[in-house]
From TrEMBL:
<dbReference type="Pfam" id="PF04140">
    <property type="entry name" value="ICMT"/>
</dbReference>
<keyword id="KW-0949">S-adenosyl-L-methionine</keyword>
<feature type="transmembrane region" description="Helical">
    <location>
        <begin position="111"/>
        <end position="131"/>
    </location>
</feature>
<keyword id="KW-0256">Endoplasmic reticulum</keyword>
<feature type="transmembrane region" description="Helical">
    <location>
        <begin position="166"/>
        <end position="184"/>
    </location>
</feature>
<feature type="transmembrane region" description="Helical">
    <location>
        <begin position="196"/>
        <end position="217"/>
    </location>
</feature>
<keyword id="KW-1133">Transmembrane helix</keyword>
<keyword id="KW-0812">Transmembrane</keyword>
<protein>
    <recommendedName>
        <fullName>Protein-S-isoprenylcysteine O-methyltransferase</fullName>
        <ecNumber>2.1.1.100</ecNumber>
    </recommendedName>
</protein>
<dbReference type="InterPro" id="IPR007269">
    <property type="entry name" value="ICMT_MeTrfase"/>
</dbReference>
<dbReference type="GO" id="GO:0005789">
    <property type="term" value="C:endoplasmic reticulum membrane"/>
</dbReference>
<dbReference type="GO" id="GO:0032259">
    <property type="term" value="P:methylation"/>
</dbReference>
<keyword id="KW-0472">Membrane</keyword>
<keyword id="KW-0808">Transferase</keyword>
<dbReference type="GO" id="GO:0004671">
    <property type="term" value="F:protein C-terminal S-isoprenylcysteine carboxyl O-methyltransferase activity"/>
</dbReference>
<comment type="similarity">
    <text>Belongs to the class VI-like SAM-binding methyltransferase superfamily. Isoprenylcysteine carboxyl methyltransferase family.</text>
</comment>
<feature type="transmembrane region" description="Helical">
    <location>
        <begin position="74"/>
        <end position="91"/>
    </location>
</feature>
Amino acid sequence: MAEDRESEVVGERRRINHPRSDFGCMASTQATSKILLLLLGAAFYDRASVPPTRPASAGEQLRADKKITLHERIMSYAIVPLWARCVYWTLSILEAAELYNKYSQGASVPPLTPTFLAGTAVLIAGTAIRIRCFRELGRHFTYAMSVRDNHSLVTSGPYGVVRHPAYTGGLLQIIGSTLVIFGADSWWSDIGYTTRLGTFLAGSSIVCGVIYAYACLRGAKEDEYLARTFGDQWKSWAQKVPYRYIPGIC
């Protein structure tokens, strides 16, 4: 009993002499967790934005449409996805560095907010969908609208749920990354918006997001040339899978 009492007294003295120890441990956990999730999210975003196949040739693109537009040329060489990856990595690293700086100086470390966690989950979900689409389509997956040599209509996997799931995954990526990078307690919302670099990165994100969102609207155009190319096979698939992006909605 005396030993137990002595241990309690020693523990109480430690708490009195080191009142910030628990706070420091919590701050360390928060900083480490957020930095890891930031870099993990950036890695996922990067993985799902890298073209899985060679760019479609001009001939393959002309089979899908009579004219190759400037937008299709840009998408063909993945210029926008490449720029978006650079912007996202930069914003993620800036925030990770800011978190580390705050922790090392003993300043308050922002908590893992519901917005940040939800954004990370949505981003990872979108990435998982796109990677599955990469694997399912194989060599047929291109950033520009095209019909490959010996092209076949893929209706399995996520393509058995909606007709254009890669766009669904891409939109989830945009939503998730926006919540993570521009949400409350982020580097950008804290100090980034007051800097030229922050303004430039935010503007670049908006431009990339708009261009990619516009690309996602190509589902109707893709349905046209797929229907023209595969005829009754496409009609049968469209009857079984009536929605382009979200089951039961659109």
